[in-house]
Amino acid sequence: MDKTRGLMFLFICVGLGCHMTHAVHMEKLANIKICADKDCSYVISMAKALEDYVASDCRYINLRRGQMIYVYSKLKPVEGAGVFWSGSVYGDRYVDQMGVMGYFPSNYVNETHVFEKKTVEIPTTDMDFFCA
């Protein structure tokens, strides 16, 4: 009887875990991104938020006025589209020190320091706009 209860508990836990995590593929914001390297792993620049920005979905990050942002890529817009950059922000709380990555509108920030002037253009993928 105990073995049966243990298996039922395991199935319930696994089942609940599967329903708690899901991911969504979102629409691509651009087909090309500008990065410091081919993997977009190096910071292009630092920027300072000019005003607060509230993220509209999970692809974006919230910004607080005065907050510093590490910029990793800049989307190359299709004509007429908005210009978004990808970066990370760090919170004041210890639990936020890992940083949060996402997109934000470039007109909400002022680029304060450029680390890498030589950049590369690479195609975006569906994973660039993946929401978890």
What would you say this structure looks like, in words?
By secondary structure, the chain is an alpha+beta fold. It has one domain (22-131): SH3 type barrels (Roll), CATH 2.30.30.40. It is 14% helix and 33% strand. It has 1 helix and 9 strands, in the order αβββββββββ. The strands form 2 sheets. Strands 2, 3, 4, 5, 6, 7 and 8 form a 7-stranded antiparallel beta sheet that branches. Strands 1-9 form a two-stranded antiparallel sheet. The model is unreliable at 7-20 (pLDDT under 50).
Break the fold down into its secondary structure elements and pairings.
Blueprint: H1 2-20, E1 24-25, E2 32-35, E3 45-49, E4 68-76, E5 84-89, E6 100-105, E7 109-114, E8 120-123, E9 130-131
Antiparallel strand pairs: 1-9, 2-4, 2-8, 3-4, 3-7, 4-5, 5-6
Keywords: SH3 domain, Signal
Pfam families: SH3_2
InterPro entries: OTOR, SH3-like_dom_sf, SH3_domain
In short:
This protein has 132 residues and is of the alpha+beta class. Helix content is 14%, strand content 33%.
Strand content: 25-35%
Number of helices: 1
CATH topology call: SH3 type barrels
Q: What order do the helices and strands follow?
A: HEEEEEEEEE
- Count structural domains: 1
Distance between the termini: 39 Å
* CATH architecture level-2 label: Roll
Estimate the helix proportion, in percent.
10-25%
The stretches of 5 or more residues where confidence is low (pLDDT under 50) are 7-20
Taking Cα atoms only, what radius of gyration do you get, to the nearest Å? 19 Å
Protein name: SH3 domain-containing protein
GO biological process, one term: cartilage condensation
Pfam families: SH3_2
Signal peptide: 1-23
